């Protein structure tokens, strides 16, 4: 008897039995699904309501042996409503003119440092962070929490504090002490919110240079080092101040953002902006858009960490015996956890501005020349007392033409990038890429290295040997984009050797 | 003079000039950003309000020469409020017992067909669709619109209607005529919404088998053919009814869902479920969650189409002269367009259920045995008059343990999959994969083919030669996952030859 025949006859007997029941009562089996994940978010919104007195909420926690304990959770304030400390502040009262026409009349930069600056100030290394990191790269007496590069910095570590004076800053646009959208605009005494001007990666480095050059009086960095967005900044700083950088390290970054990365960041921004609590950026006195932030971070996490590692770590394991539309697979609970953890730890507007700066990153010469012109125009307009920034103009609701394709050819793009990299082409550069990275695929680091070599040959008559390119195979790292945070041996090792 | 010196002196002169101005008036340069993309969505929500009389809204459109014309836009109803036609309906009044404990007391399947069924009913090919496709694979007199596989079906085409009788169905759980969450539950006379039971891919094929076997009286399909989710179904149908399938074609699919794909679908579902208009699935009389649907589709589109093609097509081109947090890069306007187009064309609850079914897909023997047991238990409980489905139980708010890892070893998983594929191991199978696919990476099709070969050797004493594996290199296709919809030559060609 075939499978289908068994089913058929069996089903018929059951159908017969069912039809005897009154009022189709058997159908009531399909009760509405429940959504504990949404209940949780609604509760969280309630606890974050500024007008409601905060209560302690019971919270279940696992310890390492998977024992469940009930803890009292003290409702967390969003980052921009907390007192932050453990870093130093540099304030610049000179305006910062920005690549896309905006201006910061004054700004501050949060920074931390390790090791000792030598007499001739020749041993300083500036570390650039990823999108959402603070200046806290390593623990120190003023902040004993482990930093995001804790094991990479210290005596005899890849960034050796016996030899070097290491500085790390929070980027402008961020929310860990440096001026960003959550900062108070001194004119209105209100937070900037989405009145903050659009930033570029190069703007961030020009702000950093005030700290390095004006404050510390460092005329030339021993090295500029960074990963992910920091790897962009590391190159951008050198492009902006070629005379002021010795060596360059750029890890898991690119020389210009590519459509897939832009697309992934686009979805993160749109998801966040669609949270009604985002309120077009003016949420600082209301419920924070923690749902949009959580979702946005979940998408980001897929791009940071997925790869062969997830196969091994999560497989197809589920946490519930019955399926659910709430987190159900182990990998889903992981994403949920990552999203929740981040949702109040970073300022939503900072995420939008810094993420956008990454999209706009392009070391090509046209982009750089346009930016210089724009900055000079802004300065001129300000000087001429007729300033009217175009960067924040009201955009028209542009209809979309789905057939439109790029107007610049790929060849033109290549030449443009080569020209833009001219000022970096004579440096000692180390480029590191990771094969399992899907956000900044390893061909993008190969592109940086190839173009820098070309630049060295073309503009300096060199051999290109000054450009080192190091690629971690999948056999070596399965951690994807986040490898730079994790792999002390294979990322830290080459850095130590290079420096 | 170094760059920084120029900037410094220039900045100082400006600062001096600025300080003369009264009331910091220069700061007002940073006006709030505008958000036309959000304005548009709000307008759309208003036009979809069921209690508001619909008005015609002016709409800007491009023609091929980029000329702007103003058109009247007739507000679109969501798919579930439109009259749908152009397909045939098969109704089954026998209950369908489901893999995760639910039951459909009755259901219907929308289907379309092309070519002629021969006398001994031996020339039928069943085509399985991707997640969001309807049964309309090809145009015909009842529906002249081009189908989703228009050029693949017809006389002398890869699916040759001179030889074969081609049938395509809308999956149960869908919204193009087959029973799904937007269908009326005959008990309550209301739509199922999230009272609909959780489905599996195998459930879908058991529903299809009623049409093929009970309705058409086809004892054995000449072939089972599908791409993406359809490629899962193609294998699942064969696993469920091994005696009733001749040849099998599975394109851009997998034998079990992998964490990255689950993660990407997870983010799409969570984004949709976070749209307040989703209302836990009960939106049919309100404003549809078109924003959540749009965002969800944008994320999906990244996984369907990104790849080398985007580099060539969009590059870093922007559509505005000044950057914006609304769609700005060409690739963003493309995603925005794809999201908008889809947002009312598919039922949001169908998306959740069908997407979830894809996550749950696993041809491994444990999963299949568990499902069989569950179905039999449901039948027994129903027969015993004490039915209480566990599939829809109220889930407890499980705390997340971020340290938890999978409990099954990779080796156990491999053996389980091999056992599960036993009944397919003796078929003629064609597996097609695409190197530029990031959603179902080509190693997953290689896995299907390898495991099927192993099954043929182990269980049937064969050589494995019955399993054909065809992989499209990046040089051949740059379209990623969607290649199966586009590449008639390199996907259609091998199908034609194989059939």
TrEMBL record, chains A, B:
<dbReference type="InterPro" id="IPR000073">
    <property type="entry name" value="AB_hydrolase_1"/>
</dbReference>
<dbReference type="GO" id="GO:0009086">
    <property type="term" value="P:methionine biosynthetic process"/>
</dbReference>
<feature type="domain" description="AB hydrolase-1">
    <location>
        <begin position="124"/>
        <end position="460"/>
    </location>
</feature>
<dbReference type="InterPro" id="IPR029058">
    <property type="entry name" value="AB_hydrolase_fold"/>
</dbReference>
<dbReference type="InterPro" id="IPR008220">
    <property type="entry name" value="HAT_MetX-like"/>
</dbReference>
<dbReference type="GO" id="GO:0009092">
    <property type="term" value="P:homoserine metabolic process"/>
</dbReference>
<dbReference type="GO" id="GO:0005739">
    <property type="term" value="C:mitochondrion"/>
</dbReference>
<protein>
    <recommendedName>
        <fullName>AB hydrolase-1 domain-containing protein</fullName>
    </recommendedName>
</protein>
<dbReference type="GO" id="GO:0004414">
    <property type="term" value="F:homoserine O-acetyltransferase activity"/>
</dbReference>
<comment type="similarity">
    <text>Belongs to the AB hydrolase superfamily. MetX family.</text>
</comment>
<dbReference type="GO" id="GO:0006535">
    <property type="term" value="P:cysteine biosynthetic process from serine"/>
</dbReference>
<dbReference type="GO" id="GO:0009001">
    <property type="term" value="F:serine O-acetyltransferase activity"/>
</dbReference>
<dbReference type="Pfam" id="PF00561">
    <property type="entry name" value="Abhydrolase_1"/>
</dbReference>
């Amino acid at each position: 008897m075939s499978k289908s025949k068994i089913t058929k006859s069996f089903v018929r007997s059951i159908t017969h039995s069912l039809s005897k029941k009154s009022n189709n009562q058997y159908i009531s089996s399909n009760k509405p699904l429940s959504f504990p994940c949404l209940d949780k978010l609604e509760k969280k919104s309630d606890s974050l309501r500024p007008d409601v007195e905060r209560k302690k909420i019971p919270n279940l926690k696992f310890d390492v042996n998977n024992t469940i304990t009930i803890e009292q959770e003290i409702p967390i304030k969003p980052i921009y409503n907390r007192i932050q400390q453990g870093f130093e502040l540099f304030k610049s009262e000179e305006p910062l003119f920005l690549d896309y026409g905006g201006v910061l009349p004054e700004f501050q930069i949060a920074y931390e440092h390790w090791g000792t600056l030598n007499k001739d100030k020749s041993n300083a290394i500036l570390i650039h962070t990823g999108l959402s990191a603070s200046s806290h790269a390593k623990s120190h007496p003023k902040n004993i929490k482990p930093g995001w590069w804790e094991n990479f910095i210290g005596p005899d570590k890849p960034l050796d504090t016996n030899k070097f004076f290491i500085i790390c800053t929070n980027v402008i646009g961020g929310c860990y002490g440096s001026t960003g959208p959550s900062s108070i605009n001194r004119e209105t005494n209100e937070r900037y919110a989405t009145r903050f001007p659009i930033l570029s990666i190069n703007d961030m480095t020009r702000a950093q240079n005030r700290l390095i050059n004006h404050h510390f009086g460092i005329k030339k960095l021993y090295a500029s080092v960074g990963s992910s967005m920091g790897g962009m900044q590391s190159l951008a700083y050198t492009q902006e101040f070629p005379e002021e950088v010795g060596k360059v390290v750029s890890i898991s970054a690119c020389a210009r953002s590519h459509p897939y990365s832009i697309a992934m960041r686009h979805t993160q921004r749109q998801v966040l902006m669609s949270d009604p609590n985002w309120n077009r950026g003016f949420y600082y006195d209301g419920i924070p858009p923690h749902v949009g932030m959580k979702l946005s971070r979940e998408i980001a996490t897929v791009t940071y960490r997925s790869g062969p590692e997830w196969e091994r770590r999560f497989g197809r394991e589920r946490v519930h015996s019955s399926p659910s539309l709430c987190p159900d697979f182990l990998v889903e609970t992981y994403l949920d956890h990552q999203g929740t953890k981040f949702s109040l730890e970073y300022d939503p507007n900072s995420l939008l501005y810094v993420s956008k700066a990454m999209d706009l990153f392009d070391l090509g010469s046209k982009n750089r020349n346009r930016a210089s012109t724009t900055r000079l125009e802004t300065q001129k307009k300000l000087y001429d007392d007729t300033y009217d920034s175009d960067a924040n103009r009201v955009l028209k609701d542009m209809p979309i033409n789905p057939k439109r394709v790029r107007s610049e050819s790929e060849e033109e793009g290549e030449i443009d990038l080569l020209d833009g990299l001219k000022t970096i082409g004579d440096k000692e550069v180390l480029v590191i890429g990771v094969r399992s990275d899907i956000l900044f695929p390893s061909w993008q680091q190969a592109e940086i290295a190839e173009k820098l070599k070309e630049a060295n040959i073309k503009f300096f008559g060199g051999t290109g040997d000054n450009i080192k390119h190091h690629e971690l195979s999948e056999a070596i790292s399965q951690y994807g984009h986040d490898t730079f945070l994790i792999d002390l041996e294979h990322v830290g090792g080459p850095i130590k050797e290079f420096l």
